[in-house]
Automatic annotation (TrEMBL):
It comes from Nitrososphaera viennensis EN76. SUPFAM superfamilies: Nucleotide-diphospho-sugar transferases (SSF53448). It comes from the Archaea. This is Putative nucleotidyl transferase. GO terms for molecular function: transferase activity. InterPro entries: Mannose-1P_guanyltransferase (IPR050486), NTP_transferase_dom (IPR005835), Nucleotide-diphossugar_trans (IPR029044). Gene3D superfamilies: Spore Coat Polysaccharide Biosynthesis Protein SpsA, Chain A. Residues 15-235 form the Nucleotidyl transferase domain. The keyword Transferase applies. The keyword Transferase applies.
Length: 241
């Protein structure tokens, strides 16, 4: 008989892979000197926020896929002991894309039947365990699409009722960059290429990919200089520390 303790321990033993090897071209010139996951939001690097978030959800083992300016990430995170976790590194000697980066980490996931993966430029407080619900082998997190613009609300006579700053758009969802996979995913991955263009469409076509929606959570992708400031304000408002 499987006890509750056994189930919890199994979840805690799972690993999370963080894709942290990209160039961060849209954040130049900042990323000329530091890798994107080391950009600070409220005085902490993005990657440190990510480890703290996932560790708070019971994940204690990490593999970080590094490439561009990798020494800064390795020197800052190290073995992970400072953060109460264990960390290993899969090094890209040349850019491999998101799919190739995960493929490059396959050896470090040997014997791991399932694991989480996330992009190294997102901040969130979503519960990753929900991705394992429903029995699907492979799943991705979805969050509501957010308008890049403020929206003006009007009535039928075009009277202005008010203004809403960058609202979430109902019934439209985007990829949050957080995944749950089984080891089967490696047979779909390219040696070099992006997972969004290769493995994910193939899994979806075969009916093997499930979406988990997260409506009322904090989520932010750091894609521009403005995102850094806005994310800091939103994290403070959401009481994320």
């Amino acid at each position: 008989m499987i006890t509750f303790y056994t189930i919890v321990q199994e979840f805690w033993a799972m690993k999370a892979v963080i894709l942290a090897g990209g160039f961060g071209k849209r954040l130049k010139p900042l990323t000329d000197q530091i890798p994107k996951p080391m950009i600070e939001v409220s005085n902490l690097p993005i990657i440190e926020w990510q480890i703290k978030w996932l560790a708070g959800n019971g994940i204690k083992e990490f593999i970080i896929c590094v490439g561009y300016l990798k020494e800064q990430i390795i020197n800052h995170i190290g073995s992970g002991s400072r953060l109460g976790v264990r960390v290993g590194y899969a090094v890209e000697e040349e850019p491999l894309g998101t799919g190739g980066a995960l493929k490059n980490a396959e050896g470090l996931l040997s014997g791991q039947s399932e694991f989480f993966m996330l992009n190294g430029d997102i901040l969130s407080n979503l519960d990753p365990s929900k991705l394992r619900d429903g029995g699907a082998a492979h799943s991705l997190a979805l969050v509501p699409l957010r308008s890049p613009y403020g929206v003006v609300e009007v009535d039928k006579s075009n009277k202005v009722l008010g203004f809403v700053e960058k609202p979430r758009i109902k019934d439209r969802w985007i990829n949050a960059g957080v995944y749950h996979f089984t080891s089967e995913v490696f047979s779909y991955l390219p040696e070099n290429g992006n997972i969004e263009m290769t493995a994910l469409p193939a899994l979806a076509k075969e009916g093997k990919l499930r979406a988990t929606t997260y409506d009322n959570v904090f989520w932010r992708s750091i894609d521009s200089h403005k995102d850094i400031e806005e994310a800091a304000r939103e994290m403070q408002a959401a009481n994320i520390s």
